[in-house]
């Protein structure tokens, strides 16, 4: 896609971290960056009077300051700004119709690695038509200003719950990002503990090993066409027994990005994030991409 990378910017530390991550991603993908601020949806701690003119002035200053800082670091980046009166969630969803990628910020849980998502972020994540990445405030891998990243994480991890066409958008997104950043992709599938009872070869320890080897081979076969499509990217299958959310969290402990899926919904009045996506969004230490699929 050639649409812009869109980031919701409200002036909070979380949104600033998201803007820096989005700028680097847009520069690497050679895409324009669009900074959006809704002056009717501002943080509660904004130190300005509640009059509309003051809120618009504050929003304009937030956009101008961020644009200048990003262009100082990425002079070749095309940056545009939009100051809108629509509620933030609706404005983001409208832009998401043609965006290549959307980026949101999230407050952390303090000393506990994780995200704190508000209603706006959850609404956008549940309905966006494009992949949406959530970045935790203060993520040490995000170079803000002229500060280099404090650490470099490795793999891009993608959750492979099911086979079939639903996995195609997730793998396409993960492999494209890996090719861009020169890293490998770890494709993770969890084997539920309950299937130990029903699988004919999983009742003994050797049988358990054979069962996992069989499932590993099945996953490797599913990934074979993608290896041909992305020959320069190392694509590693991993099959682990356990709850899907916990398996994915363990695999992503040192990843640079985790990719999960979410079904598209026909109505803007009804949406739902699955339990694995919810767990990833609230507990991953790294940015999380939610990719919609049919």
TrEMBL record:
SUPFAM superfamilies: Adenine nucleotide alpha hydrolases-like. InterPro entries: Rossmann-like_a/b/a_fold (IPR014729), Universal_stress_UspA (IPR006015), UspA (IPR006016). Pfam families: Usp. It comes from the Bacteria. Residues 1-136, 156-292 form the UspA domain. Belongs to the universal stress protein A family. PANTHER family: STRESS RESPONSE PROTEIN NHAX, UNIVERSAL STRESS PROTEIN UP12. This is Universal stress protein. It comes from Streptomyces aquilus.
